[in-house]
Amino acid sequence: MDTDQLIRTLSADNAHRAPRVGAMLTMALLVAAPLSILIFATFLGVRPDVMSAMHNPFFDMKFAVTLSLAIPAIIISLHLSRPEALMRGWGWLLLLPVGLLAVAIGSEAMMAPAMPMTMRLVGKNSRWCMLAIPAMSLPLLAGALFGLRHGAPSQPALAGALAGLLSAGLAATLYASHCTDDSPLFVATWYTIATAVVTAVGAAVGSKVLRY
Amino acid sequence: MRGREDEWTGLMRSAMAGDDAAYHRLLRAVTPVLRAAARRGLARAGQPPDQAEDIVQEILLAVHLKRHTWDSEAPFAPWLFAIGRNKLIDALRRRGRRVFVNIDDYAETLPGETPQETASTGEVTAQLNTLPQRQRDVLQSIAVDSASIKDTATKFSMSEGAVRVALHRGLAALTAKLRDH
């Protein structure tokens, strides 16, 4: 097939309209979310003292941190699904959860400590946290990668890492409602490790499956 | 330069609005530019320029299948050249590996004989033959016999909708095979 023939064939297919990447990503995440929620409901569940916990600003802060990771990661992953897109000018969005955590750690340090620092840091759930966040992330990560495959990222590994960040952010949001460790020190340590694992998996798989 | 690129953006907007002729004109207009860039890239990498056409065809397929990622408010050229650059890098990486393997093979079994660079017979054509019958028939009818969708539908006693589906699936499968082979 010579190039003129190929061009004629492509023109004949011009009527085909593909959905936008955002629509594909939304759909894929909506399909994946019930699986993650199922894992959550089966093995974890909302903590029993959730009503009183809601009056604790450090409990609420966990959701601010995880959502300030998930939402910017979704936005950036969609931006990067355009071939000419650069990370420049967008990366600072990922500093939002870092900044929030820093503020939270600072304000906790200024209060009279309820528990010694090592206990706040290690908590009661660190092992669960490291297991549960990646486990609940997996369906979401698969969905995110499926949705982003519809795009044309120039750096597939980077786009895959963003898929990891967004799925870890969403999974951590679920996990935060289960975990009774509310100290920002705990969140900064264990949530971060869990997120890093998922992000690394996302980058590794993304570098293979997000090539177009 | 500026005028040319503005013209491309205008054509792409019309194409996305459903103007097939504008799309055809756009693809024809960008092809020589892509070809020149592919030749330059191959030359810089010390590769024979006769493979440029394969790269051009891969770029055109990617442009086609990913055109929904183009933002119609943005200029078309940066989007196009980004795809062109990615496809060129992919192609060089793939060929680099293959050439290396070839040299190794020849060094072991046929000392003294230089590895023959196979003339580009058209990777698209080669992969076309691996498609399912129906998709291959439809693509060949439209590409090689320049039949319209309507004529193709009559020829194979299919509905026009089925021809369109086979056409699009064929193009998508072709692109996947080129990427992964």
Automatic annotation (TrEMBL), chain A:
Stretches that traverse the bilayer: 21-43, 63-80, 92-111, 131-148, 157-176, 188-210
Lineage summary: Bacteria, Pseudomonadati, Pseudomonadota, Alphaproteobacteria, Hyphomicrobiales
Source species of the chain: Bradyrhizobium rifense
Keywords: Membrane, Transmembrane, Transmembrane helix
Protein name: DUF1109 domain-containing protein
InterPro entries per the UniProt record, alphabetical: NrsF (IPR009495)
Lineage top rank: taxon: Bacteria
Pfam families per the UniProt record, alphabetical: NrsF
From TrEMBL, chain B:
One BP term from GO: DNA-templated transcription initiation
Domain of life: Bacteria
Coiled coil segments of this chain: none
InterPro entries reported in the protein's UniProt record: RNA_pol_sigma-70-like (IPR039425), RNA_pol_sigma-70_dom (IPR014284), RNA_pol_sigma70_r2 (IPR007627), RNA_pol_sigma70_r4_t2 (IPR013249), RNA_pol_sigma_r2 (IPR013325), RNA_pol_sigma_r3/r4-like (IPR013324), WH-like_DNA-bd_sf (IPR036388)
Keywords of the record: DNA-binding, Sigma factor, Transcription, Transcription regulation
Domain spans labelled RNA polymerase sigma factor 70 region 4 type: 123-174
Keyword Transmembrane: no
Keyword Ribosomal protein tagged: no
Molecular function terms from GO: DNA binding; sigma factor activity
Record-annotated RNA polymerase sigma-70 region domain positions: 31-98
PANTHER family per UniProt: ECF RNA POLYMERASE SIGMA FACTOR SIGD, RNA POLYMERASE ECF-TYPE SIGMA FACTO
Family of this protein: Belongs to the sigma-70 factor family. ECF subfamily.
Protein name per its UniProtKB record: Sigma-70 family RNA polymerase sigma factor
UniProt source species: Bradyrhizobium rifense
